[in-house]
Specification:
single chain; Jelly Rolls; Beta-galactosidase, Chain A, domain 5; eight-stranded antiparallel sheet; 26% helix; 25% strand; globular
Length: 987
């Protein structure tokens, strides 16, 4: 069917009188001006001819150089496109806009998927184009180009495309969705600081005195001393020079796909591992050596430093060589993460040890630090690293070398480094400005917590010597609020971007602790105190405890909801009770997003510790299935063709209509996130009574195929979901959750498992598919659930439990034996467990205690009535969630606290190192752990997984309360008691 330009304008709703279209290509005269296109009389959509692009199947280029320069009055590129075959292919559309200040190659880019045969109208909002380098703007366009090769795409042989009636138009809807202009982070003129360059000392003597008065600090110091001794017995960290010398478990898996670059990439990435290990191993031992004056500990630190002095540079080149086509420039790719890791560890160690380090080694380390300072300055001078060339202060990769620069300049204390110091301050100040004033980090939670730790350590060091220039920004003031609002009920978190975890740790992130040290108010102190059950067993944890005791506490927390406009993100919970609160978060999307996934329009919902709707999360970059997680199919949203490339931030405006403790209403315009979508609007309402209502209206550019997934809902269900319905009304249910679907057209709902990073491997997804091809769809989804009550809330507290015991019973039995229960004998017939004989430090242990409700139990016989304690030899890694267990005796949880026993990360799963710890239940809450009264006779002891999280167990010990932990361990595993794992000592 032929169409006239006038008819096309009428159908598209464009009013010519408002903004006249600009015709770019139509009849033979305009086609002849183009490169790579030929005049064709068949097929034709408008007029008499079309433009034939035979090169689409061979990797050719079609170029329009006669286009007008100024496109700023229009916002749509529109054309009819004919494809001779339905095979899927991708066409790259670019608009050249060269910038004289760069080295060339500046353009706007759009990836157009073509998967049809025949004619179709293509409408591309200019706002959906991405930027390649630094194009001048839409008012300075030099050419319009079409490619079928490059940008990791290849032509489909035999493809022939025809263009017709190509023009520029204006649309009110596209204007409303236009992304805000990208703002270049300014180079601020900070006031000069003339103070002395010096690295501030740590108040260790004051802290040591404090540990004698404060029980928590004293217990923390006990744990640290045990760690110190254990760490000093391990080999020092050494640099590797061959791929074969790096253990497979320490290799960045991407090396396998880097071709000839594999070894140099693996070695560069292993520098991050080795330098990072210094913070975890060398610094704690240095503190132990300082506090105890133990010569063996001092010798360990000296040996490690003598090894480190040979690391030149701290970060070797090659960290960008993760694909086989990458070629390193002659000067390498610059300083990077290992520089930040290593510099912090070195400076902290030298500052703690001071004159305990031999003079010659001190001089060598100062020379190393100066070389690193000079190299970092040279990176910014020559623009060697990609993030300097791109002037991108918003990424973690910019932050760590800049923080290292400040650490180095402060420690050296040499005035010749004054300019370098000012460069470091300027760099991190620009980072604060680039993140925005609301405290959010544009790379998401995982990168934000990690990056801000280095920024705030630098801010702490500067503030301690009197330079407070990094503390006056909205980002540094509000960062702790952003972290607080990333916490969902049940310990879950806002798992957007490359978060790398779906739950918060049981201990506060270092960046939050540092924010609390620097804060002028109590907001971060409240967050640490109320959201995390434990302070980290680390130098920073001890420093924070000292600070917190002096600062006091507050019980006044922030509102449990907030909107973060710089991320187009909203988080809400009914209250701060982790067990009973309802929570949800919604994302629109921002073109500021970096490391963004296509989760625009996503919604997650939680009911206490039960996830109802989740996202798929992010696997390791080496995982070849990464695209499955990074695209829309991992999220609760529309599944039509996405905007590509997926890693680019996409402006998806979100309007918060109402938000309070009862609930809220939010409107998301998700149109920009999809290529084949004319409009997608999502309206979400919810109430604390236990319901969420989501209304989606979709208009597609072309009929959506029948029986193809249009919407996906990624549920928290780990087993089959019950589905019923027909036509335009369906229902799905599991647990206490009911999802009701009402559509404008007949559709079907199906279920399938989908991999995710939420601790269990797979959850059930619900797919909504239309029964017949359609261009417009309205879908209303209502989720209803019974709100969680506080589990074990009706039980007495531990103190009430003890007080209710008669004094004659509340005694330790004399000479009662220690009972040892081997873990593998407690798993019963639960096939989800797995027995391992390959764990370091254990002959036989069980694994896979990962599922809520999964239990271990044993029958025990007590010879003498009295008070007993329970100890587990266990290990766990934070990558598998926070282990929460309840203990029941004869089918009943004895007191409230026994219903939520939290096991902290031990550092790993004892696969390659001995990560086992001896944990007395309740030792984090009471001085010596919980005591349980048991009568003489037989009892059933059960431990139940209450909140997910993996926990490996070797054995369980039941011992009389009058016996020390160390003695109980000694009777079962003497060597472990002797190495300090079960030792009790005074601070």
């Amino acid at each position: 069917m032929l169409r006239t330009p006038q008819l096309i304008l009428a159908l598209s709703g464009i009013v010519a009188a408002e903004t006249e279209p600009i015709l770019l290509l139509s009849e033979a005269e305009s086609i002849k001006k183009c490169e790579g296109l030929a005049v064709a009389e068949d097929p034709v959509m408008t007029g008499k001819t079309s433009a034939r692009w035979a090169g689409a199947g061979t990797g050719g280029v079609a170029r329009l150089k006669h286009v007008p320069n100024d496109w700023s009055a229009q916002n749509l590129l529109v054309f009819d496109l004919h494809s001779n075959a339905p095979e899927k292919k991708t066409i790259v559309v670019t608009c050249e806009s060269e910038n004289a200040k760069t080295k060339g190659g500046d353009y706007f880019i759009y990836m157009l998927p073509v998967s049809w045969s025949g004619w179709r109208e293509v409408r591309i909002p200019l706002g959906k184009f991405g930027n390649a380098r630094k194009p001048m703007g839409w008012d300075q366009i030099e050419s319009l180009n079409f490619y079928s090769r490059g940008w990791r795409i290849s032509p489909v042989p035999g493809t022939v495309l025809h263009f017709d009636n190509m023009r520029l138009e204006y649309s009110d809807k596209a204007a409303r969705r236009a992304p805000p202009p990208r703002k270049k982070t300014p180079h601020m003129k900070l006031p000069a600081w003339k103070g002395q360059l010096r690295f501030p000392g740590f108040p260790w003597q004051e802290i040591l005195e404090f540990t004698k008065e404060d029980r928590l600090a004293g217990n923390l110091l006990k744990k640290l001393r045990r760690q110190f001794r254990s760490t000093a017995q391990k080999p020092i960290v050494t640099r590797k020079f061959k791929l074969e010398d790096i253990p497979e478990g320490e290799r960045d898996g991407r090396y396998k796909y880097a071709g000839d670059n594999g070894e140099v990439f693996a070695l560069a990435m292993h520098d991050c591992t080795t330098n990072g290990s210094l913070n975890a191993r060398m610094v704690p031992v240095a503190l132990a050596a300082r506090l105890t004056e133990d010569k063996d500990l001092t010798d360990f630190v000296v040996r490690q430093l003598r090894e480190v002095k040979t690391w030149a540079p701290l970060q070797r080149p090659g960290w960008t060589a993760y694909d086989p086509d990458r070629k390193l420039p002659p000067g390498g790719d610059g300083n990077w993460l290992a520089t930040g890791y290593g510099m912090r560890a070195i400076v902290h160690t030298l500052s703690i040890m001071k004159d305990r380090i031999p003079q010659d080694l001190q001089e060598d380390m100062r020379a190393l630090i100066q070389r690193e300072v000079d190299s970092i300055v040279d990176d910014w001078r020559t623009e060697r690293p990609w993030f300097v060339r791109s002037d991108f202060p918003g990424t973690n990769q910019w932050v760590l070398p800049s923080a290292a620069l400040l650490y180095g300049c402060l420690f050296l204390g040499d005035e010749k480094n004054r300019d370098a110091y000012e460069l470091g301050v300027q760099n991190l100040a620009r980072t604060c400005v680039s993140q925005g004033d609301d405290g959010s980090w544009r790379e998401g939670l995982g990168y934000g917590l990690f990056s801000a730790e280095y920024l705030f350590w630098a801010g702490w060091a500067l503030a301690r010597v009197g330079d407070k220039r990094l503390l006056g920004f909205g980002f540094t003031s509000n960062f702790s609020d952003w972290v607080t609002h990333m916490a969902m009920p049940g310990g879950y978190c806002v798992n957007a971007f490359d978060c790398g975890a779906y739950r918060l740790s049981d201990r506060p992130p270092n960046s939050l602790l540092l924010a609390a040290l620097l804060a002028s108010d109590e907001r971060p102190l409240w967050a640490v105190d109320h959201l995390f059950p434990r302070i980290p067993d680390s130098m920073l944890g001890l420093l924070f405890r000292f600070h917190m005791a002096k600062a006091g506490k507050t019980d006044v927390g922030p509102e449990p909801f907030a909107a973060y406009p710089s991320q187009q993100l909203m988080t809400w919970r009914s209250d701060w009770d982790d067990q009973t609160a309802m929570g949800l978060w919604l994302r629109g999307g921002s073109n500021r997003d970096f490391h963004a996934h296509r989760d625009n329009g996503h919604i997650s919902i939680y009911n206490g510790d039960e996830p109802i709707l989740i996202e798929s999360g992010t696997p390791n970059y080496a995982n070849r299935d990464m695209p499955k997680f990074a695209k829309a199919s991992g999220h609760n949203m529309l599944q039509a063709e996405e905007v590509i490339p997926r890693g680019k931030g996409c402006h998806t405006p979100m309007t918060v209509k109402s938000l309070d403790r009862d609930g809220g209403e939010v409107l998301i315009d998700g149109t920009n996130a999809f290529t084949d979508v004319e409009e997608w609007m999502r309206e979400v309402k919810w109430h604390q009574d236990g319901w969420v209502e989501c209304k989606d209206t979709v208009e597609l550019n072309a009929p959506y195929p029948a029986d193809k997934e249009l919407f996906r809902f990624h549920t928290g269900a780990t087993g089959n979901v019950t589905i019923s319905g027909e036509g335009m009304a369906w229902q799905a249910s599991w647990s206490d959750v009911v999802m009701k679907f009402t559509g404008s057209v007949p559709y079907a709902v199906a279920q399938f498992e989908w991999p995710d990073q939420s601790g269990f491997g797979k959850h059930v997804c619900l797919a909504v598919k239309t029964v017949q091809a359609t261009r417009t769809v309205a879908l209303q989804t209502r989720i209803e659930f019974k709100r969680k009550g506080a589990k074990f809330a009706d039980l007495p507290t531990y103190q009430d439990y003890l007080a209710a015991l008669p004094s004659a019973q509340a005694k330790s039995p004399d000479n009662a034996p220690v009972l040892v229960l081997q873990a593998e004998e407690m798993i019963g017939k639960d096939e989800r467990f797995r027995i391992s004989t390959k764990k370091v430090g254990a002959e036989k242990a069980f694994l896979n205690w990962d599922h809520v409700g999964q239990k271990i139990e044993a029958e025990i016989e007590i010879k003498q009535a009295g008070m007993y304690q329970v100890l587990l030899k266990n290990c766990t890694g934070a990558n598998h969630g926070i282990p929460v267990r309840s203990l029941t005796l004869n089918g009943a949880v004895p007191f409230r606290e026994a219903g939520k026993l939290v096991f902290p990360d031990t550092g790993g799963w004892s696969n390659e190192t001995d990560d086992w710890v001896m944990t007395v239940l309740g030792e984090d809450i009471t001085d010596d752990g919980f005591q349980f009264y048991l009568t003489a006779g037989k009892h059933k002891l059960t431990l139940v997984n209450e909140g997910g999280g993996g926990l490996n167990v070797d054995y369980l010990i039941l011992f009389p309360a009058g016996m020390t932990k160390a003695e109980a361990v000694r009777q079962v595993e003497p060597n472990r008691a002797e190495d300090g794992s079960g030792e009790d000592e005074e601070p």
